[in-house]
Design brief:
133 residues, mainly alpha, 3 helices, 82% helix, 0% strand, rod-shaped
């Protein structure tokens, strides 16, 4: 009968270490995924503004088509109206595109990178017997 105060064997200890290492690696791999997901969520609003800019750009192309047709068909002030609409749509596309660009959050998973660097420093210190600094 085994006593409750017996020390576990090497196989048990190695199994526990292996389990802990697997759990640690899984969590380290999960952290960048979560951080990238946060970045993507933050950039969805910028994507919306880029979509609006695309709509204005499409409208500008339609207005340009109308302008070209009006210039070739008639030499009347119709072209001036088409040119005005073209300029308004280009200005709208530029404004919304610039607003979307300003809302972008372009960065990498810095928390994960820093965490990995810290882990490597700690592991080197533990394995090589040096201070962690």
């Amino acid at each position: 009968m085994a006593s409750m105060y017996e020390r576990p064997g090497y196989r048990t200890l190695l199994g526990r270490i292996r389990g802990k290492v697997r759990e640690y690696v899984r969590k380290q791999l999960e952290l960048p995924r979560q951080e990238i997901q946060e970045i993507v969520q933050a950039n969805l609003r910028a994507l919306m503004w880029f979509g609006i800019a695309l709509a204005f750009a499409t409208a500008a192309l339609i207005a340009l088509t109308v302008l070209v047709i009006a210039l070739f068909a008639l030499f009347l002030p119709l072209w001036a109206a088409a040119l005005l609409v073209l300029l308004l749509f280009v200005a709208g596309a530029a404004l919304t595109g610039f607003r979307g660009y300003k809302k972008l959050d372009l960065r990498g998973p810095t928390r994960s990178i820093n965490s990995l660097k810290e882990t490597v420093r700690w592991a080197k210190a533990r394995l090589l017997g040096r201070s962690a600094s």
